[in-house]
Amino acid sequence: MQIHSQNKVVSIWNTIPNSIETAEKEITENSEIIRISLVKEPTLEIYSPSNRTKSDKAVIIFPGGGYQFLAYDWEGTDIAKLLNSKGITAFVLKYRLPTSKSILSTSEAPLQDAQRAIRWVRANSEMWHINPNKIGIIGFSAGGHLASTLGTQYNSKNNFREEPLDTISAKPNFMALIYPVITMQDNFTHKGSRNNLLGKNSSATLKNKFSNELNVSKNTPPTFLVHAADDTAVPVQNTLNFYNALLAKNIKAEMHIYPYGGHGFGLANNNGYLQNWTEQFYEWMQNLD
Questions:
Q1: CA separation for the pair 210, 196 (Å, rounded)
Q2: 5 Cβ neighbours under 8 A, 6+ residues apart
Q3: Distance CA 155, CA 10 (A)
Q4: Is the domain defined by 3-286 classed in CATH 3.30.750.24?
């Protein structure tokens, strides 16, 4: 597992599980935003704040993109830079996408990468001056689905040959879900995300497994939620139903529903009071201790 100190990118696997070798090449498109697709080698890009402002918290970021691509800067590196400005070490996860032919079991690969990412950060917390009990996650859209899957299924068993790193807890200490896809049920799902992750003719069993409002337990971590009521891509009921599931299990949760903003607003810079969600998130994190 090599660390590239110049641009602070690390490979999270020595041997990538649930994969086969193909001729596919990872694609990066740089237009209005950076879109990465056909990810073959999952990585963490590390953003460390200045020593003067550095706290002992860390956040792993899961960009969205409907499980088809990753909005890598819009919902990834831009978020990392903001967190750095607050003294928080940030890690952007470039996770495998189920549309790749190099994946054997498509529904399992993103969660495997998310579990491995938090284990890697926890195992290397001393190197980055992080408290291993203050590692959170934040996900956007389909990345919010992955984050909520990790938050509710962090202890899913591995079906591959484990390394010592794979025995470390993958439980996030807190999570933030920003206009997240939560459910795979017909009523409120984002069908593009569901079709990519589970296939177009997925079984009820598989839909239930990845409908994260059904998988909240008393061990789900404290959660911060943001959504816009006028989101026509991912209905706000995804967030509302997850919040209610958290309350039913007495999980500490904070929810902000904005009347406008649509879908995919990212940092929401210059977008009225919607842009305050990042300050709300920071204040919430500060009050977790």
A1: 13
A2: none
A3: 23
A4: no
